[in-house]
């Protein structure tokens, strides 16, 4: 490249010198007959004539050099960049971990709250120890014995639908009596309670099967009130212990949005808040197994008409102001009626189960036990014992569906374990 520049410079210089000689000879005759200028003027004129071609040459060379340098840089830069990329160790950015149900990656998400959630997806001991006691097997058995040996002294309107009644026993204890023309709903209420007991979920008030018999000592004192209520003789009813000091229960904020989820990173707040969320994890599992239509699924379904439904209190869910216990009320659609409508409502049930990735260990263990047994229907039917003549047992079809749903809950737990390993 340098030799090319020098050669070009030499050619231009010779060309300009030749032109200078021609100009100097052609200029002089023009001034013939005119007095010759003095030597200083002549020298200045000749200097301008000589230097003008040289300046022009410099200008041309400068432009040429600039062009060549620009061309060289333009060719060199892409080559440099290509070589640099080949040797680069920079890696493309990795995708972020999304925590919504729809976009969870297969990579693990680190648990940062070991005191609240342990082993990836289970509530920790501190939360478990703080949960309200609720109603377990001992309370359920005492209630069964109580309603069979204590007379009812008052029947009054209350406890929901038209033919439901609020009963008062001789010692002042109260009960909600569920009366239905359709036996399916009596079965649903009772078997849902039995399933809750099997799972160790203590959020259902004690319930027991009764039969309206106006001549029985339990009912004889309210025979006239039975007639006013238009209750038929020998009709099976469910008597549930009345619980006072209940208020509305709100749906957790993380479950209200379209990207609903209750995962380890969502369990934040004070002690009372964590206690409530732990009970919600049981509620989601329980309502999925029973296909309950009258609680959160009710809120979800009505979103199409009322966008604010998820901000409203949960349907058929109450909170005790004394103990912060959540009461799962009105479970009559479970296991029978809800199963018949799965084609219509299964998507709503699945949305809630898919949103859950924090569980009570004891609930998961019982789900696994019932799933492996394969005979959950027989276990539930055995709970009827002497009352088997009052209502039919759980239909075989319902038992098969319940087994399938136990498997589905198991699959969700296993999926969550992969997302949040120990």
What do these coordinates show?
It contains 13 helices and ten strands. Mean pLDDT is 82; it is low at 2-6, 8-37 and 78-114. A five-stranded antiparallel β-sheet has the order 3-4-5-7-6, with helices on both faces. It has a three-stranded antiparallel β-sheet with strand order 8-9-10, with helices on one face. With 422 residues, it is an alpha+beta fold. It has helices at residues 2-27, 39-87, 125-130, 137-149, 183-199, 223-228, 271-290, 296-301, 337-340, 342-354, 361-373, 376-382, 396-419; strands spanning 117-118, 122-123, 152-157, 165-169, 174-178, 207-211, 236-241, 246-248, 317-320, 326-328. α7 (271-290) packs antiparallel against α10 (342-354).
Instruction: Provide the spatial order of strands within the biggest beta sheet.
Output: 3-4-5-7-6
What letter string, H or E per element, gives the SSE order?
Answer: HHEEHHEEEHEHEEHHEEHHHHH
How far apart the termini lie comes to 68 Å
Give a short account of the largest sheet: 5 strands, antiparallel
Number of strands: 10
The low-confidence runs, each spanning 5 or more residues with pLDDT under 50, are 2-6, 8-37, 78-114
Structural class: alpha+beta
Q: What's the alpha carbon Rg, rounded to whole Å?
A: 45 Å
Helix fraction by DSSP (H/I, runs of at least 4): 40-55%
- DSSP strand content: 5-15%
Count of alpha/pi helices? 13
Average pLDDT: 82
The outline comes out as: elongated
């Amino acid at each position: 490249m340098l030799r090319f520049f020098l050669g070009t410079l030499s050619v231009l210089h010779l060309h300009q010198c030749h032109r200078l000689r021609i100009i100097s000879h052609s200029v002089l005759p023009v001034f013939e007959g005119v007095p010759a200028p003095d030597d200083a003027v002549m020298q200045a004129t000749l200097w301008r004539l000589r230097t003008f071609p040289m300046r022009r040459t410099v200008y041309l060379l400068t432009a040429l050099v600039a062009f060549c340098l620009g061309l060289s840089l333009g060719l060199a830069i892409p080559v440099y960049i290509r070589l640099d990329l080949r040797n680069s160790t920079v890696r493309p950015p990795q995708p972020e971990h999304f925590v919504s149900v729809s976009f969870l990656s297969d990579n693990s998400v680190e648990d940062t709250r070991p005191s609240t959630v342990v082993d990836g997806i289970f509530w920790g001991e501190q939360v478990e120890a703080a949960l309200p006691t609720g109603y377990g097997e001992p309370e359920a058995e005492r209630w069964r014995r109580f309603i069979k040996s204590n007379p009812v002294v008052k029947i009054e309107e209350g406890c929901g639908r038209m033919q439901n009644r609020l009963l008062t026993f001789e010692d002042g204890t109260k009960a909600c009596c569920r009366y239905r023309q359709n036996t399916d709903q009596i079965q649903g209420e009772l078997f849902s309670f039995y399933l809750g007991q099997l799972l160790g979920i203590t959020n259902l008030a004690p319930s027991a099967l009764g039969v309206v018999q106006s001549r029985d000592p339990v009912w004889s004192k309210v025979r006239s009130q039975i007639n006013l209520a238009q209750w038929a003789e020998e009709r099976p009813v469910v008597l549930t212990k009345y619980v006072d000091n209940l208020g509305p229960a709100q749906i957790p904020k993380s479950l209200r949005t379209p990207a609903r989820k209750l995962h380890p990173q969502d369990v934040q707040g004070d002690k009372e808040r964590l206690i409530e969320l732990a009970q919600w994890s049981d509620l989601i599992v329980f309502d999925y197994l029973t296909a309950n239509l009258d609680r959160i699924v009710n809120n979800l379904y009505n979103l199409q008409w009322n966008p604010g439904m998820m901000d409203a209190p949960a349907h058929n869910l109450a909170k005790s102001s004394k103990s912060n216990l959540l009461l799962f009320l009105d479970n009559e659609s479970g296991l029978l009626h809800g199963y018949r409508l799965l084609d219509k409502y299964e998507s709503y049930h699945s949305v809630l189960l898919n949103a859950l990735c924090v569980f009570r260990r004891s609930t998961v263990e019982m789900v696994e036990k019932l799933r492996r047994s394969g005979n959950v229907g027989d276990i539930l039917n055995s709970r009827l014992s002497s009352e088997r003549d009052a209502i039919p047992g759980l239909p075989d079809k319902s038992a098969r569906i319940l087994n399938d749903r136990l498997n589905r809950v198991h699959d969700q737990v296993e999926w969550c374990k992969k997302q949040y390993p120990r």
